[in-house]
Amino acid sequence: MSETVIKLDGISKSFHIYDKPIDRLLENFFSKSQRHRKFEALKNVSFEIKKGETVGLVGANGAGKSTLLQIICGTLTQTSGELGVSGRISALLELGSGFNPEFTGRENIYFFAAMQGMKKTEIERKINDILSFADIGEFVDQPVKTYSSGMYVRLAFAAAIHVEPDILVVDEALAVGDEAFQNKCYSRINALRDSGVTVLFVTHSPQTVMSLCDRAMLFDHGELLLDDNPKDVISCYQKLLYAPDEKKSLLRSLLLSEGASALKSDSKVQKQRAQGNDKRDKRDEASLNDNDEYFEEGLKSQPVVYESDGAEILNPHITTLDGDKVNVLIRGKEYKYNYNVKFSSSVTMVRFAMVIKMLNGTELGGYISSHDAYSGIDSISSGVEYTTSFKFKASLNPGVYALNAGVRGINQGDEDFLARVLDTYLFRVLPVKEQCETCYIDFNVEQSHSIN
Fold it and tell me: What segments bear the compositional bias annotation Basic and acidic residues (predicted)?
């Protein structure tokens, strides 16, 4: 049986919130006068983590994830409950913690490693490996206060992984690194995991959780709602994150009482609803399980509309091939992206376009209705309205994506955009079990191997 390295039993953490700074002073002098409100950052959290496990913590901002990591690392003390940690912890918490800004990068490495219990001779054996991994060049001998956020996280992560930790804790800090460095970090996390190091980290990336983690935990308002396999946890997290406010309490109560199974279409809870007098419509039922596409009201975009040059894009949406409006899709199925175009000027050589992209703006793929600038629709009169549809296959790995829409043509000048809208529509691709595909696009790869 694997050794338990982290054990929490009924951990709670509350903070006192004061309306005015003077209230804190007055409360200290007059003990009978309570001038604070209590904010419960964590509520009765209990779990165990075994040696060698990689566990991802997910949840909206303010859910209590960072507070929990700080308690595990010892930088915060719990209000109540019991905590047991076995082994050396190396932590990369919020950006700016752990290093003295007045020290140089080299001095901070020695300071950090010494705080982890390493002797100077051990540090000197590893210093070159740390500097090589961080790859910040001559800046290592400059004060840390002069570093960019990317340089800081490079040095901090390099130091954290080279102190021979039993437990590695990472709290979102890698999000500020560039893509190449993130890949380098995740490769090293995989190597640490394979060597028996326990890894505990916070991330908002579904792909990272499902590719790296053995298990995941979902937190919301200080409570541990779900502790299960990464696929189910990510699915429930996204449903909760994008659910309308009036449905969130239902989802929370279902997760607390029944776990992830309560949100699956074949669960006992779902069957009881189907047999009872539940008044929810089919779209509500679909939003509680993983097997069907559906429309999630809370998944809303904030479009960026460019100035019109003779056309306006209206009513962008995705439908199934049967015409049902959806924004939660099943990987591998075909859908239609539709929008209307109302023309306010007479224009020529009109082409319709779309782009699918990541939330950070990286364009993954798109389509334009004609390959040549002068081979579109010959002419469209003012006042005419068109509907355009793009049938596409959802060849994307689980996550949330955005769509753009554009209309190009000629309006008394050069060929250009007549109308353009960024982030017209958001959609989510549901998680899949035992996913082998990595990154964002599913290229339908088939692997084989043989002995030479």
Answer: 276-286
What is the CA 422 to chain-centroid distance, rounded? 21
Specify the residue for token string 């679909």. 286
pLDDT single digits (tens) 56-110: 999 988 899 989 999 998 889 999 999 999 988 988 776 556 788 899 999 999 9
pTM score, whole prediction: 0.73
What's the Cα-to-Cα distance from 226 to each of 46, 233, 272, 327, 431, rounded to whole Å?
A: 11, 7, 22, 24, 16
Rounded to 10 degrees, what is the CA torsion of 273, 279, 282, 284? -80
Residues 6+ apart with CB under 8 A from 413: none
∠ Cα 435 440 446 (to 5°)? 50
Distance of alpha carbon 327 from alpha carbon 317, whole angstroms? 8
Q: State how far the Cα of 329 lies from the Cα of 334, in Å rounded to an integer.
A: 9
Neighbouring CB atoms inside 10 A of 115's CB total 11
Domains of the chain: 4-228 (3.40.50.300), 304-429 (2.70.50.60)
Q: Do the beta carbons of residue 5 and residue 51 sit within 8 Å?
A: yes
